[in-house]
From TrEMBL:
SUPFAM superfamilies: FAD-binding/transporter-associated domain-like, FAD-linked oxidases, C-terminal domain. Its cofactor is FAD. The keyword Flavoprotein applies. The gene is LOC115994300. Residues 19-40 are annotated as: Disordered. Residues 30-40 have a biased composition (Low complexity). This is D-2-hydroxyglutarate dehydrogenase. Residues 105-284 form the FAD-binding PCMH-type domain.
Amino acid sequence: MQKWRATRRLLLNSYSSKSRFDHPRSNPISDHSTTISRSSSGFESWTSRILHYRHFATAMIQRNPSFSTLNSNDINHFKGILGDKNVIEDEDTLLSANTDWMRKYKGSSKLLLQPRTTQEVSEVLKYCNSRRLAVVPQGGNTGVVGGSVPVFDEVIINVGSMKQVISLDKVSGVLVCEAGCILENLVSFLDNQGFIMPLDLGAKGSCQIGGNVSTNAGGLRLVRYGSLHGTVLGIEAVLANGDVLDMLGTLRKDNTGYDLKHLFIGSEGSLGIVTKVSILTPPKLSSVNLAFLACKDYSSCQKLLFEAKRRLGEILSAFEFLDNESLNLALNHLEGVRNPLPPAMHNFYVLIETTGSDETYDKEKLEAFLLRSMEVGLISDGVIAQDINQASSFWRIREGVPEALMKAGAIYKYDLSLPVETMYNLVEEMRTKLGNSAKVIGFGHLGDGNLHLNISTPQYDDAILAQIEPFVYEWTSKQRGSISAEHGLGLMKANKIFYSKSHETVQLMASIKKLMDPNGILNPYKVLPHSI
């Protein structure tokens, strides 16, 4: 209490005009489904130090015998559509495209295609469908469940060359762009126009909007702006047979029949390849504040969230939490990271961000909320960023935890939606279950009930995995939670879908898949259980 009051005159200052969204993050990795910037300096140096990894791609899976094998005639046909330079057979390039960033999933594709237009995507898919050549759509290749890399020899279709901003309506704030636009580039473009993306991910430097939509990426702003099911107004997608679906509407209201765009949001490229997106972008607001807070227990974090929603209301834009194991990892493995609340280590930490249009009002409202929370014992200590550099250092801790985990050794990652009141119980139960054989870390988007459960070990161990799975999925199912909050199912969780969805629901999904992709060439072995 005294410490907070003694320091608040120095530290309770907002950083206004420029928000953290304008400032490039230094960390390449996020906990989200789009999780690494491959262009980031140092990526190869630190991943090369991760000696203990393994590939899970073909375990317990057989290649679909109905799929054809690529031949020289196919390659020549693709060159006729795309030109020689956009048909890639280079081994080094293919090695990267075949492998996910965690080095956990690795395919054996012999061909990478880089279409530049929707028409080219259409022609490629039409041919692949006629030949029964399986394909895997790929954007920034930043997922964590094996959804964006081949399982076997599927042809990789990367839409990264389709990166044009088509239009921005400055009255409505509707942006229309191609699927290959990198999220960070869209953020920069919109910033210059006085708008922001409703989606914010740590890997925005490499993830692409088409992949974001296809995985229904969540991220840090969901508590304020909702999911992509709400902000995406329209899409253009190419079906397996090459048909182009033009659903690129820009209207907030359109009740003419079934809203089919939602089939493609979160279906991970299994129903069609998204080629264009229209998305509602909010206006950029001038006042942003970020508080880094300490709490004595998880119950205090819950109560703080409830109070923040009530008392900060319209200006609350992010509510993130991490436990002390998460902060310890960041301090020990991330260069330049410091404890914002020295010298003590607390049990839990919360980041609260507010975004508004009145700097004085917003700052006073946040200060009053924090002081009241301190007085009633919800907060043990805390600080508000004085400027954008301090704010970035706070976010670096929260968003750097996945990078720290990678540097620490092998990781078992789980992305779960759970009731907020019981969410952290799973972390505690896993610690009891695993004892000293592993470190169990819990952090995530508390504002929308999304736990990122990470289990860190020196190396991958089947005995440890057997203790984790299916326990984590069974526990989540008993809570009526979701085994995938925002990462998708991909290959990793395709056979686990029944923990979150009924057999009748999954069967209907399979029927939709069969209708839209009768030959099953689009991202096979992903999303739906292999038994179906």
